[in-house]
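Hey, can you fold this one?
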Amino acid sequence: MNKYAIVVKDLVKKYGDLVAVAGINFNVKYGEIFGFLGPNGAGKTTTIHILATLLKPTSGKALVAGYDVIRDPKMVRKNIGIVFQDPSLDNNLTAYENMYIHGRIYGLHGEELRTRIEEMLEFVELYEYRNKLVKTFSGGMRRRLEIARALLHLPKILFLDEPTLGLDPQTRVRIWDYIRELRKEKNITIFLTTHYMDEAEELCDRIAIIDHGKIIAEGTPDQLKSIVGNDVIYLKISEKDMNEICSKLEGSFIKKCKPLRKDMVALNVDNAPQALPLIFDKARANGLKILEVSYRKPTLNDVFIYLTGRELRDSTHDSMEFAKMIIKRRLMR
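Sure. Predicted structure:
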């Protein structure tokens, strides 16, 4: 059997002249948790919809569980489960009834269906609520039920599109526990999209960072953070032109300098305690006044800053503009 659960080659999705996915390539191994990290509008959901056969790509190739998403969509669907970003349960049915309808769609019936429903509801700790209407459930309970439903037909691959979006911190951590248990107990491959850096770092064996439809980095969390260096130093400086500040500060001991806003820069270095005295000397020599200084080990947000020049959480505006362009394009058709 091929060791890859998902193979993506030169995948492109366009809406007219707007490019949502721009020729991406990646592989996902069987049994791993693979993360797609990026801001809203980066192309994460579009990619997952192509892999789940809900959208046709403009060009390129994608294999899921060994089946081509264009030539063998039925076999792809048979081998995958998916939890969508938006809620998809029927609120006027009970938990058991939601599970039952989903099972029948996948050809399950009788004792096998009943046993599967009970097993999955017990797995997500909802068995005692099986006869309760979904509209009485909390957000976390609904998410757990959606995960149980997606597992009902025993898929080889589970797609989770922003699985903890809008949930409180305690519920998010509980969902993380279920995801870990899935991989451990069910040996299932999990493809996870998220814009939460802590979620990607906490759960994923490997991560692909996607921005504006392109994969800009891929690797384990530690490999990605090594791109930046061992430490990140933040300086607040009483000057206006941060690009000019960076040109004055950059040197052999600074891997990269990135302006963050009108008075802040981020410096990527291998050893902050050793670099700080050199940075202060350089600032003094160039007549720069440092107002604040701090440093820490790099995060995935620091990796995103290093690669794009902006923070992951500051990319919402870009994604909103992209969404508006798509809507405008569709209205013009």
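The chain has twelve helices and 14 strands. Let me know if you want another pass with a different chain boundary.
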